[in-house]
Structures are given as structure tokens and as C-alpha cells.
Amino acid sequence: MYRTHHCNQLRKADIGTTAMLAGWVHVRRDHGGVIFIDLRDREGLTQVVFRPEENAEVAAQAHHLRSEDVIEVEGRISARLPGTENPKLPTGDIEILPDKLRVLNRADVLPFPLDAEVSNEDLRLSYRYFDLRRPQMTRNLRLRHRVTKATRDFLDEKGFVEIETPILSKSTPEGARDFLVPSRLIKGKFYALPQAPQQYKQLLMVGGIEKYFQIAKCFRDEDLRADRQPEFTQIDIEASFVTPDDIFLLVEGLLAALFRAGRGVEVPTPFPRLTHAQAMDEYGSDKPDRRFAMHLTDLGEIFQASAFKMFRGALDAGGAVKAINAKGFASLTIGQSDELTAMAKHYGAKGLAFIKVENGEWKSPIVKFFSDAEKEALRSKLLVEEGDLILFAADKWDVVCEVLGRLRTRIAEMQKLTAGSDQLDFLWVTDFPLMAFSAEENKWNAVHHPFTRPKAEDIDKLEAQNYREVRAEAYDVVLNGVELGGGSIRIHEPDLQAKIFAALGVSEEDQETLFGHLLRAFRLGAPPHGGIALGLDRIVMLICGEESIREVIAFPKNNRGIDLMSHSPTAVDARQLRDLGISLTGEKPV
For residues 451 and 411, is the Cβ–Cβ distance under 8 A? Predict the structure, then answer.
């Protein structure tokens, strides 16, 4: 036996008894020969006091202890001396006076202190096994456990069955690059790691499972950022004979249960809904953060007959003129102004027109082109006041929305509009476009994936090949500007699925090669079905109040996809490559 209690368990009622504890030396203090140790395990801290007059031999041993040594102590539980109690600790009324000390393992020089913020993330990831000892990381992983358990409990109660699907799968075009796994037994052939269990969960519906879920590992070979990893975890859900409203009701209940379990808050339901067109038109984003205003305001009526060529030209070409009012931001710095201008150009604007309202004056090179009536209309529509910054965009409607939406979010960050906010603004975004045209590839691509069902009222537009106006029976759930997950009602008829493949440029031959198993399944009585995939990492991140999913994953990759702890990816032995029938050409591995 190493311990009878954990380090957050002993209280006043235990005084006079004996206990065994084991853990790490969190802090060691030498007070004139009396050694004080804060002993730590995952549950908390207990003070251990080594007094020479109590046990000289054990006290002498304690003089050699260092931070993060692993020890076991056994001794009497005593009340702390009056005035030395620590009300911040649950164990702050007691201490242990040990008569036995055993050092289980010595710690080397520490890579960084556990009780301080470490700004060097690469250092933390290199010693992740050590970083995990920090109370914040322990808290995050235990919260993740509770959220995952609450997911299973909720869906089990609703009649869903958890089923694992294959990790070694087939490479099919689904929107991101696949991670490929070469086969040793069948030379020249490859498995793919699943981007999502999409086809398998649809096949489970064909198999009559009706209600499926999985805490699924997914893999995508794509550029990384704070809320992306090459491997991630999603709560994958699929059900038969459902409508979007059925999915909304289920997911709202699930998310309410997760935030109750993880954060102890009640989430109001049902969630508000916006169509994709409404979200883009008003917020410039398909995952809008509505905790602050700064809405995109349409100015087409004001400038439809304007003498200002930039605005008039955009409207005459069938485009849009919109603006946002950044309240109180006329005092932005030159650096901030330059950043916003560069951002606008990056997302398609030719430049960034603005008005600063300072000392009662509208300061801008474009104001001289506005009539008095136009200025008054602007003042009224945008509620222009002293200290405001008005930013304009004039171009195609989608470009205007994208540019101002990006600026809106960045300005909110600059102004810290949501700093310290505990508001939880859940939202459904519905009726996404089914397809988007890629000028680079000169073809139509699926916005979600090729198995998404078009809305029934838009089937005639699909038949007429008016793809731009075809909406999908698709939906995303959003929290505070972060997409928590997305899903759709699926296609279950082989003829309709073949038509969508054809619209996406997938030939009949490729349909059979890539998706023949799915099309054959649909010919054997596939039920109507739909579902959603929720990002477990993102949900836990938001529950924990973190800004990166790396803070809620035990062993993540860095922003270059490298595991700094195990130094992977890495070169492999030439014999392994030879067994796989693979030879490397081109650049040498780094």
C-alpha cells in the first residue's frame, strides 16, 4: 500500500489518526531546520511537516528533498498551530507529522516551473508528460472526461447505440487531404485514415441500426490553427427517419447536458436560428458571434444614384455597398489601421474606405464625394456619433460580406468587446448553399460533403443546373462565433446521389470506383436519415474557457503538425519502406 488517503481528503475530523500519503513534492520550505512540504497528487495538497524533535532521522532525510520528487509519507494527522491555518486549502486546518518517509523517485532539473505561466508552448509540448501535472491541465482533462461521459449517458438514454467504425478506410474525395497508409500485403495499394465516419454511419442506417453515435477519431491533412489538429475527436451522430427539427432538439438537449456537466450552467433552449444568407448579410460570417452588435448595414438605397463612382459602380454591376460602425474606435492606431486595410485586401477588397468622426468632423478622403442628403442618410442609418469609425466595402455581395465580417471580428478583438464575458450565445445556421464554384478548379464543389441532401423546393433548380441557387438541408450549430459542429439530412436515393456526383464532376466510372459500395447499398432499401458531427475538442475548449484545443488534448501536435515530445513524424528504416514497396524521391526528409 502506498497511501490510505489522497492529498485533498484529510480534515479536522481526522486529527489524531494516522495516514499514508503519496505524491509529488510541490513546494519545499526550510524554516530553521523545520522542513515544510506541500505534498501534491491530482486531487490537491496536504502540508507535511518534518520537525527534528519529532523524528530526527526522517527530518534529516527531508533536507534532501527537491521539487517534484515522488515520495511516500506515513504519520500522525495534527492540527496546524493557531494562526497558521490556510483557509484557501480544503486541507488547510491540518498537517501530517511523519514518522516514515520513502523516496520513490528523484526528479532531475525541471524544464520549467509548474506554478508559473509558461509562454513558450513548444517547451511545454516537448515535456508534455511534465506539463500535464499543472493543475489547469489536470482540470481540463478531467472536465473532458466528464463531458465525454455525459455524452454517452445522454445519447444512451435517447436510445442511441455506440458503434466503432474502421480507422483503415478508403480514400475518397470529401473536402480535405487524406492521410494515406500503405498496405504491405497488397503492394501499391493504400488505406486512408477517415476524415470522418460519414459513409460508414450512413451504411449503418442502411443496416437498420436507426440510432448510432461514436466518440470518433478523425484525421485530416490540412493547414493547422488554434482549433485544428491533424487528428481530432468528434461526437458523431446519425439517425433514421428524422427531420432537421429532430436533430436540433436532440443536439440542444445534448449540449445543455454537456455544459451542465462541465461548467454547471443551464443553457436556454431552443437555440435561435438564422439562415446562411441572413448570417452572411448581417454578420458577414456563417458562424457569427452575436455577443456584440456592429452589424453589416446595407447602403444600396443611399448610394444607388450617387456621384461617388466607387459605390455607384459596384451597385450598377449588381454588387453591394455595406458598412459597419465600430463605435468609439476612431482613435485606432496607425498600426491597427494598416492591419485592417491589409486584411480587407487579403479577403478581396480593392482597398478600405472609412470615415473617422472626431471633434464633430467626418474625416475621410471620400466624404467630399457625398451629397448632404447622403451624409444625413448615413448618419441616420448607422447611428453615427462622436468617436465612431465607419468602414465601407463595395464589391460583389459575397466579397463585401466576407471582408466586413472579417473586419468586424478583428475589431471586436482589438476593442476587447467580449473580454471577460460569460455569455453563451448558441445559434443554428441553416440552409447552406449545396455547392460552391471553384474558379481555380473550374468546377462545382460540395460545401459540406457530396452526401448532403438538397432542399426539396430547390430540386427543380438542380435539374436546371442552376447550382448557385440550390440550398442544402444542412445546418451548423455555433457558440460565440465558434462552429461546434455541422450536419445535414443525407441523400438516400441512388438516382439523386448519382445526379449530385455528376454535378460535382464525378464521372460514372469514378462514382462506381469511389462510391460504388454506397450506391449499391442505397439500392437495397435505404431509409431517410441524417445527423451531425460535433467537435468534442472545441466543446471542451469552450467549457474550460481556453483559446486553443491543444489545452484540452493530452498529447497534441504543434501548429506545424509535429509532436515535439516524441519527435514525430520521423524518417523510417529503409527496410520498412522496402517491405511496403515504397521508395522515396525528391527532397530528403527534414
Answer: no
Q: Report d(CA 311, CA 304) in Å as an integer.
A: 8
pLDDT band at 172 (very low <50, low <70, confident <90, very high): confident
CA distances from 317 to 215, 304, 353, 364, 521 (A): 49, 11, 19, 25, 47
Q: How far apart are CA 421 and CA 427, in angstroms?
A: 17
pLDDT, tens digit (0-9, with 9 covering 90-100), for 323-378: 999 999 999 999 999 999 999 999 999 989 999 999 999 999 999 999 999 999 99
H helices of 63-175, in order, are 121-126, 128-131, 135-157
Reduce the secondary structure of 9-34 to three states and give it as a string: CCCHHHCCCEEEEEEEEEEEEEECCE
Q: What is the C-alpha separation between 163 and 208, in angstroms, rounded?
A: 13
H/E stretch holding 334: helix 334-346
Architecture (CATH level 2) of domain 292-414: 2-Layer Sandwich (3.30)
Q: Do residues 484 and 534 make contact, with C-beta atoms less than 8 angstroms apart?
A: yes
Give pLDDT, residue 79.
Answer: 96
Distances (CA, A) of 105 to 11, 74, 132, 327: 28, 17, 18, 59
Q: In what order do the strands lie in the sheet with 529-535?
A: 161-162, 211-219, 231-240, 529-535, 482-489, 474-479, 426-430, 273-275
Query: Closest Cα to residue 72, out of 7, 17, 135, 138?
Result: 7
What CA–CA distance (Å, rounded) separates 452 from 526?
A: 15
Length of the chain: 590
Strands 389-395 and 443-446: unpaired
Give the pLDDT score at 587: 60
Fold for the domain defined by 12-105: OB fold (Dihydrolipoamide Acetyltransferase, E2P) (2.40.50)
pLDDT tens-digit series, residues 415-430: 999 988 899 999 999 9
Cβ neighbors of 566 (< 8 A, separation 6 or more) are none
Task: Look at residues 219, 215, 217 and name the one whose alpha carbon lies nearest to residue 254.
Answer: 215
Q: DSSP 3-state helix, strand, coil percentages of the chain (rounded to 5)?
A: 35, 25, 40
Q: Parse the chain into domains and list their residue ranges.
A: 12-105, 137-274+426-574, 292-414
Alpha carbons 61 and 50: distance in angstroms, whole number: 9
Q: Which residues contact 374 (CB under 8 A, 6 or more apart)?
A: 302, 303, 306
Q: Which residues of 178-212 are buried (b: 16+ CB within 10 A; e: fewer)?
A: bbeebeeeeeeeebbbbbbbbbbbbbbbbeebbbb
Count of beta carbons in the 10 Å neighbourhood of residue 110: 12
The matching CATH number, chosen from 2.60.40.10, 3.90.76.10, 1.10.3720.10, 3.30.930.10, for 137-274+426-574 is 3.30.930.10
- Residue 378: which region, alpha, beta or left (left: phi > 0; alpha: psi -120 to 50)? alpha
Distance (Å) of CA 201 to CA 163, 165, 233: 9, 8, 16
**pTM tops 0.70:** yes
Q: pLDDT tens, 134-162?
A: 999 999 999 999 999 999 999 999 999 99
